[in-house]
Amino acid sequence: MSGENVLNLRSFWRIQIVGWCCFYLFDLLESIHNFMTKRVYIDEETVPIVFMFLGSFVLRPFCRWQLRQSQSWIAFELKAAAAAMVTSIPVACAAGLILRRSYHVPWHALVAILMWSFFILFMWCSLYFSIKQWQQSSMEKERLLRAESEVREARLLALRYQLNPHFLFNSLNAVSTLVLDGNAPAATRMLAQIGDLLRTSLDSEVTAEVTLSQELAFTEGYLAIEQTRLGERLKIDMAVSMETRDALVPNMLLQPLVENAVRYGVAPLVEGGRIAIKSVLHADRLRIVIENSGRRGEGEQKKNGNGIGLGNTAERLKTLYGTNFEFSLGWPEGGGCEVVLELPLRRARNLQEASPCAL
């Protein structure tokens, strides 16, 4: 017998025993006003219910077989009524024979037991059918939710893995540039930094979300690589509120956005520029702002230049949060470019411990 069948059988026994016990107690309470003697009371109320309880076991295989026929509710009810009537006949006869040992049972009392048994067993069949339908519906919903979750996780993984070759290509291209410029020490240092970053990523568990502090650690590793390439031309400002550090964000959310800022807002300028990363809580939501100080117009000319980074980020946010997020790209009057993110606030301490950051 499979584990699911064992679980279903245990569930049936629990509901069966609890249900019939509750029905028996309710019937006793309802019949107190007919109380004559203790013995008659027990006989009249107990014997029919005991045989109805046994009759329900006869009806269970029939109900299970009917459920496998995938028929309508009306068809099941009609067949259940017929089965309940057939089962109630031996139930009433057996109860009458037992009761006759104690006192005389008139024929109309047997008819009353027969009709009562028919009604109770018919209701038992209907209840059994309803419970099984509810269980099947719940299991189907659970399977659909599990399938949707697996599809969503697979999509997130595919989108995140799309960034791996993109990030690696750009980094190796920067190393090539340093080599061509004759800056071998910087190229060697950058290769070591790239290796450390990739090793950390490969050794870490892949998760859909990580804490903001973990995401910042990965982004700082990337910025260290860029600082090796750009030197003093790249300045970095961090203004991350402590109350936001345990907030959950999509894995590898910041790196492609920061890369965009460096590539189009700082690297093209001879004098270089500044990258600023800020995070605050705003109306119970996590607000992250990434700014670069490039000249006004530079970002607008290149706003579609990094389709992978921005498009990938938008797709992952939509997959994780539906429409419950904001993701905007703007060009302030003072120049440069500004990316603003507002995400639902979810903290790591309220969920399972977030895994280390991974690509």
Structural notes for this entry:
By secondary structure, the chain is an alpha+beta fold. Helices cover 64% and strands 12% of the residues. It is built from 9 helices and 7 strands; from the N terminus they run αααααβαββαββααββ. The strands form 2 sheets. A 5-stranded mixed sheet has the order 2-4-5-7-6. Strands 1-3 form a two-stranded antiparallel sheet. Helix 2 packs across helix 4. The two termini are 43 Å apart. The relative contact order is 0.08. The C terminus is likely disordered.
Describe how the helices and strands are arranged:
Blueprint: H1 3-30, H2 38-67, H3 73-100, H4 107-180, H5 184-203, E1 209-211, H6 212-230, E2 234-240, E3 248-250, H7 254-266, E4 273-281, E5 285-292, H8 298-301, H9 307-321, E6 326-330, E7 337-344
Parallel strand pairs: 2-4
Antiparallel strand pairs: 1-3, 4-5, 5-7, 6-7
Helix pairs in contact: 1-2, 2-3, 2-4, 3-4, 4-5, 4-9, 5-6, 6-7
- Principal-axis shape equals rod-shaped
Q: Quick check: average pLDDT? A: 76
Distance between the termini: 43 Å
> What assembly state would you assign to the polypeptide chains in this entry?
single chain
Strand content: 5-15%
User: Main beta sheet, described?
Assistant: 5 strands, mixed
Give me the number of helical elements: 9
Unreliable segments (pLDDT under 50, ≥5 consecutive)?
A: 36-41, 298-306, 351-359
- Strand order, largest beta sheet: 2-4-5-7-6
Helix-strand pattern = HHHHHEHEEHEEHHEE
The amount of helix comes to 55-70%
Radius of gyration, in angstroms, nearest whole number: 36 Å
The tally of strands reads 7
Q: What is the SS-derived class? A: alpha+beta
